[in-house]
Design brief:
The chain is an alpha+beta fold. It has three helices and 17 strands. The strands form four sheets. Strands 3-8-7-6-1-9 form a six-stranded antiparallel sheet, with no helix packed on it. The chain has a five-stranded antiparallel sheet with strand order 10-11-12-13-16, with helices on one face.
Length: 278
């Protein structure tokens, strides 16, 4: 009986932990249509941004009448924060105009900016159902011809992902380049949301100067082991440290950027698996 009670307590602990861990809100990128039919809550603005208000909310589909206007296309924070709406099709059938209907029947519109997730204010009930190749769209154009690939992702928080052929082995691999302002000349530590770390105290950082001045330094991390592959494709980066101490800027990664990086790495490995079958 004691063993059963202990197992039940452990089960409840696991369930509680799973419920406490909040999933990362995914920016729809080029697919605002993923929001259609979803119930969304408008997230509160950071305290330092509340006076500026929300961008691009209006009372008409053309966006000419700003909702609770406090400035150019700016709406008062208290008029929108924590409110819940249903996303419904707009009358112009324009994907970049999100039509929101409150439970009381109020209609407002939001001009969706696919290029700036800082203006994405929504928490989606139940999360988004993203297409399988969603994160692959973050790769820029490059060489992509059968097994010959050299494609680089967009820059997120000073981080880029490459899918490329190793010139020595001609095998497909994934590399990541980190860029951080630092005084350090060597050493890198990458910390993930599951608490695991990747550390190389002798990693040489690239930069114009290596005289201890604060400047942007680069490090290209080559993912070679199964452990590294699993960490980068299944977990979120929380912190990257050049040297022994965190930089005053850019060392701590926002979850929204870490999720993109994780998804891009995952896409890269799926691409490699597909090409290796050719």
């Amino acid at each position: 009986m004691k063993n059963l009670s202990l197992l039940f307590a452990l089960f409840l602990s696991v369930v509680a932990t799973a419920q406490d861990k909040k999933s990362v809100e995914i920016f729809p990128n080029n697919h605002p249509e993923l929001l259609l039919g979803k119930t969304v809550k408008i997230l509160p603005l950071p305290e330092k941004s509340r006076a500026e208000g929300y961008s691009n909310f209006a009372t008409n589909v053309y966006g000419t009448d700003t909702y609770h206007k406090i400035g150019f296309k700016k709406s008062a924070a208290e008029s929108l924060e924590n409110r819940v709406f249903k996303v419904v099709p707009n009358e112009l059938n324009k994907l970049n105009v999100i039509k929101l209907e409150s439970p009381e029947g109020e209609i407002i519109y939001h001009a969706y900016n696919q290029y700036d997730d800082r203006e994405y204010y929504f928490e989606v009930e139940g999360g988004l159902d993203i297409p399988e190749d969603f994160y692959c769209e973050y790769f820029q154009a490059g060489v992509d011809d059968g097994k010959k690939i050299n494609r680089m992702s967009k820059n997120f928080w000073g981080t880029r992902v490459w899918v490329m052929n190793n010139l020595k082995t001609d095998k497909l691999e994934i590399n990541m380049m980190f860029n951080i302002s630092t005084k350090a000349t060597k050493g890198i530590t990458i910390i993930f949301d599951n608490g695991e770390k990747l550390e190389d105290p002798n990693a040489q950082l690239s930069g114009k100067y290596n005289d201890g001045s604060l400047e942007n330094k680069d490090y290209v991390y080559m993912i070679t082991t199964e452990r590294e592959k699993k960490l980068f494709s299944e977990n979120l980066i929380t912190t990257v440290i050049f040297g022994k101490e965190k930089s005053p800027v850019d060392s701590d990664f926002p979850a929204r950027h870490s999720e993109k990086i994780r998804g891009i790495v995952e896409c890269g490995y799926k691409t490699i698996e597909e090409r290796n079958k050719l």
